Amino acid sequence: MAKVKEEAKKKYFERIAPYRKNITELKDKERRIEAVLKGHNAGDPYKRLSLAEDNLTAASYHLVMNSLSVTLLGVKNESELNEAKKSCSLAVIQLEKVFTDLIDVPFSDYEEYLKATFSFNEMKRYDLIRKAGLALSMVRIGFGENSKWKWPMVDLDARLAAIAKNCLDLKTLVQGMDPRNEGYRERIEFFNLTRKMLESAADDYRLKYEVATKRADDFRKAISFLGALKRLSMMLGRQNDAINLKKKIEIWKKKMDADHKVREDASRISRVGSIGNN
Prior knowledge:
By secondary structure, the protein is mainly alpha-helical. It is 81% helix and 0% strand.
């Protein structure tokens, strides 16, 4: 049995060697690019997009190495999963720097960032978001439902949802929804995906608040994603959706305020009791 295990380990390390080499090369490339990034040059957003793509490629290598560990050794490789999550996080950070992390704000607040990447056309933007979403999904599946990373993954998913929304050019989106326009099907698919991501972010932050943190900022984030979804609905003239979302936001705000009052009352009673005991 020991010999079998040693042979399996040897085969595993042989199989992952090319992936490790590729990751090292990507990290070297990342260091070179980061060294020339100034933050103000016209080409910097494109360099950051390249870094985002490279980090997602690195994440895919780490995920493959975990899969090989499961197949050849019969165990998950938590280290590779952690590295895959880290690579996804680095990709999200780069995308936030390119497209912003703004959520429930007018399009004019981030329009200039979108213009700065005009030659990185909308289909390329959509493909990159899909690639990031798939990587995050594979990391989540790798960790499993009861992982300690469950809630941090919610944060990453939500941040990607905001980026996906900020990749939409709302000045041309409506006319682009005409079936006669080139790219209509891909545009509709991405728009529907973005709506789903925003809705999931809202629901996940609400769940995180209810079962894990009870932190008001998680509830506020949930509401802000509903607000972003309402803005999109209004932009496309989906009045019924906008009205329903407005009602939902009002209900959630009332719940958040009521919970806050309960905590304030409990804290006040606790302070009074503490003074009385002294």
